[in-house]
Amino acid sequence: MAKYVLENCFAVLAFLLAMKTKARTTTMSGEVIRCKAAVAREAGKPLVIEEVEVAPPQKMEVRLKILFTSLCHTDVYFWEAKGQNPLFPRILGHEAGGIVESVGEGVTELKPGDKVLPVFTGECGECRHCKSEDSNMCDLLRINTDRGVMINDGKTRFSKDGQPIYHFLGTSTFSEYTVVHSGCVAKINPDAPLDKVCVLSCGISTGMGATLNVAKPKKGMSVAIFGLGAVGLAAAEGARIAGASRIIGIDLNASRANEAKKFGVTEFVNPKDHDKPIQEVIAAMTDGGVDRSVECTGNVKAMISAFECVHDGWGVAVLVGVPNKDDEFKTLPINFLNERTLKGTFFGNYKPRTDIPGVVEKYMKKELEVEKFITHHVGFSEINKAFDYMLKGESLRCIIQMDA
Ligand SMILES: NC(=O)c1ccc[n+]([C@@H]2O[C@H](COP(=O)([O-])OP(=O)(O)OC[C@H]3O[C@@H](n4cnc5c(N)ncnc54)[C@H](O)[C@@H]3O)[C@@H](O)[C@H]2O)c1
Ligand SMILES: [Zn+2]
Ligand SMILES: [Zn+2]
After folding, report:
1. 211-267 per-position pLDDT tens digit
2. 260 Cβ closer than 6 Å to some ligand 1 atom
3. Domains of the chain and any CATH numbers
4. Which atom of ligand 1 lies nearest, measured to the CA of 121?
5. What superkingdom does the record give (predicted)?
6. What does the CA dihedral 284, 287, 291, 294 come to, rounded to 10 degrees?
């Protein structure tokens, strides 16, 4: 008798466990999904893996199952909230790859099962920016770092015990499931390996596009890259593809010198090794200045140096790094009068839905290597390690596997 009761108890327990696992993993179009998310509850404190509720997608939204995500320095700024507005609790993350789980009303271009990259800036396809060849600053879906809600109803799709958890950059990929506006989703080749191409959803496309689409160096030109993290090294890769004759990499982290060689950087300069302002050092190395520069540090002093180190008459500087919200860029107007150009870009001027599938194809055809940007891997439960690697300057990109 005792054995019979015990066996039945085990059977009931096994059933309950199976139901719990099922609730976590099956697709449930139109229903709330409970899943794991890494929640940033306080500035600078380790993310907490929690079970959260993810509401179904509303009009023009899609719910994604994220399979791989990676860490970009922009996540770190908003987690630290030192130079940015604090907004907590929040689910960070914007560089990722996943699968469409369900779609909301009005979504016709995506369906469950599609392989996708969510992107922090969107493309409605209708506005003047989306219709312009020169802009990716969509009126409806352009990057908004302070908004923590969905635009459809001004509410969050994430909650825990009835309390809202804010979104980040419209993507919030540090969650097994997330809800994203369909205009912020690039549908990609179903054969593309998400553990690799996820890095194309922010950093690598941004850096490469900043050089190829915005700085546009001509063959044989010299290019300076400030900041040799993944974004800067992707900018260097862009310079190599464009046929730059010299690619001068500038970084305060001496260990970047070796890494940079793999990305076509021909000379490395560490500002710590010089007494003079770095723009003067670069000007002395290049007979008056480089033809193009791309800044990928987020440090406003480096931004000013990046501008002032380009040659007068034709030099073009491009800002990519995200500055502190109150930073001011100061330079003498004469630097502009002397025919230097200053530009800036989000996402390397790529339109996410129109252009990113093609960038993924370049990887598929082996015209673009992303593996060399991937220096670390961690399971989702160890996501805080990815922050440590980046803060110590050890990693370029750390891939976070959601089911590990
Ligand atoms: N505009 C966009 O669309 C966009 C997209 C992605 C990332 N970003 C920004 O690009 C920047 C780089 O991102 P990442 O993920 O490659 O970061 P990262 O931390 O991996 O790399 C930044 C590098 O800059 C170096 N650096 C910092 N201050 C410097 C200085 N004063 N002079 C020289 N080097 C300096 C660091 O040592 C580091 O190697 C960040 O500011 C990030 O927010 C912008
Ligand atoms: Zn990013
Ligand atoms: Zn638009």
Report:
1. 999 999 999 999 999 999 999 999 999 999 999 999 999 999 999 999 999 999 999
2. no
3. 33-201+370-401 (3.90.180.10), 204-346 (3.40.50.720)
4. 3
5. Eukaryota
6. -10
